[in-house]
């Protein structure tokens, strides 16, 4: 009888240990995957001065994505890193990108803009592939557009490929003090 009780306790202890190890492994894996990307460690402080914003392009992901800003002076910034509060710390920090990769582009952005779908409230966010905000310089009545999943916007894809930019990844984070 006493042997059975000890055997059950050992089995329960082993099961608890295995479950704990699995949970720790999953948490480490999730944290590692969220904070790794093609752009990890790249970028410098964000630009202080730039042209007016023409387009803001971001991929609809289940994380904080890298975000591409295109300016009217034919420059761009790909925001790759943001500041975040440390775990178990209370703070009111809004998401603010603090690192970006900068470059120049030569492309007629109107070609891309003409192929966009205007965002309406009845569009399910799970159906959105890209969200695009158009700056005030573009002659459009509305400024929030989307590319829906399954909707092919070859010109946008061509443009991103030309710049060697991948928007299918999460931005990395840097802890605040």
From the N-terminal CA to the C-terminal CA, the straight-line distance is 56 Å
Largest sheet: 9 strands, mixed
Q: Approximately how much helix is present in the residues?
A: 25-40%
H/I helix tally: 3
What is the chain-wise order of helices and strands?
HEEEEEHEEEHE
Instruction: Calculate Rg over CA atoms.
Output: 23 Å
Total count of domains: 2
Mean pLDDT: 77
Kindly name the structural category: alpha+beta
Q: Which word captures the global form? A: elongated
> How much strand content do the residues show?
25-35%
Count every beta strand, where a strand is a DSSP E run of 2 or more residues. Answer: 9
Describe this structure in words.
By secondary structure, the chain is an alpha+beta fold. The protein folds into 2 domains: about 1-35; about 45-175, no CATH class. Helix content is about 25%, strand content about 30%. The protein is built from 3 helices and 9 strands; from the N terminus they run αβββββαβββαβ. The chain has helices at about 1-35, 110-115, 155-165; strands at about 45, 55-60, 65-70, 75-85, 95-105, 115-120, 130-135, 145-150, 170-175. Strands 1, 2, 3, 4, 5, 6, 7, 8 and 9 form a 9-stranded mixed beta sheet that branches. The radius of gyration is 23 Å and the shape is elongated.
């Amino acid at each position: 009888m006493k042997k059975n009780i000890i055997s059950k306790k050992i089995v329960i202890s082993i099961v608890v240990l295995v479950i704990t190890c699995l949970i720790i492994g999953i948490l480490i894996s999730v944290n590692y995957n969220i904070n790794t990307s093609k752009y990890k460690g790249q970028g410098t402080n964000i630009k202080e001065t730039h042209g007016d914003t023409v387009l803001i392009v971001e991929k609809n992901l289940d994380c904080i994505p890298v975000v591409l800003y295109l300016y009217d002076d034919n420059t761009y910034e790909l925001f790759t890193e943001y500041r975040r509060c440390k775990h178990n710390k209370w703070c009111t920090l809004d998401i603010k990108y603090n690192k970006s990769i900068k470059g120049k582009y030569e492309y007629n952005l109107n070609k891309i803009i003409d192929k966009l779908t205007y965002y309406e409230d009845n569009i399910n966010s799970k159906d959105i592939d890209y969200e695009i905000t158009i700056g005030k310089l573009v002659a459009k009545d509305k400024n929030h557009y989307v590319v829906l999943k399954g909707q092919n916007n070859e010109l946008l894809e061509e443009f991103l490929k030309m710049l060697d930019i991948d928007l299918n990844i999460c931005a990395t984070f840097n802890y605040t003090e």
